[in-house]
Amino acid sequence: MDIAQLLPASRIRLGVRVADRAEANRRLTALLEADGCLLDRACFERDLQAREAQSSTAVQGGLALPHARSEGVEQPAAALLVLGEPLDCCSMDGVPVDMLLMIASPQDSAVHMQAIAALAMALEREGVRDTLRRLERPEDAAALLAEGDAPVPAEECGDAQQPRILVVTACPSGIAHT
Questions:
Q1: In angstroms, what CA-CA distances link 104 with 72, 79, 93, 127?
Q2: Number of domain units in the chain
Q3: What CATH number has the domain bearing residue 130?
Q4: What integer pLDDT is reported at residue 165 of this predicted model?
Q5: Could you tell me if residue 157 is inside a domain?
Q6: Which residue segment(s) compose the domain that 122 sits in?
Q7: CB–CB of 57/28 below 8 Å?
Q8: Which long-range contacts (CB under 8 A, 24 or more apart) does 163-172 make?
Q9: Which tens digit of pLDDT belongs to each residue from 53-92?
Q10: What distance lies between CA 164 and its chain's CA centroid?
Q11: Tens of pLDDT along 120-170?
Q12: Does residue 158 sit within a domain?
């Protein structure tokens, strides 16, 4: 999945101040709407609220991943807020959230999973989150996230006989995240 297309600089805001999680979600949704990513904002907001009501999407390390599949979305899209002041969002590790990455996808769960996987892998690269917290320009943030988007050549994959670990978690919306 093309991260540069999924999350362009136009949908990234850095050093943002918000009063609460609801305001953060409204701002993220507004970024998606302004870029023409939503067919029906109200429909997407209802689906996002329903997903958020199932369980917190504040994961760990200061990151929240509000996401929803919705008829109100035409194609996968994401928006990112890096907060100037963290919010207490009841994350799994108790760390206040200072980065919210919203993922909006059409009802096709395969596409939704590809979007979540691509963005999660970009955010898990060493030093990426810390660097995002220090950046001042959305263009630099978009470039950083898209950096590792190229496929790894086979010769760099190492020994094919080495064991690999796959972790799967269950999302209350019925999606298994890997």
A1: 9, 9, 25, 25
A2: 1
A3: 3.40.930.10
A4: 56
A5: no
A6: 3-149+163-177
A7: no
A8: 172/51, 172/54, 172/55
A9: 888 788 888 898 999 999 999 889 999 999 999 998 777 7
A10: 25
A11: 889 989 999 999 999 999 999 999 999 866 544 444 445 555 555 555 555
A12: no
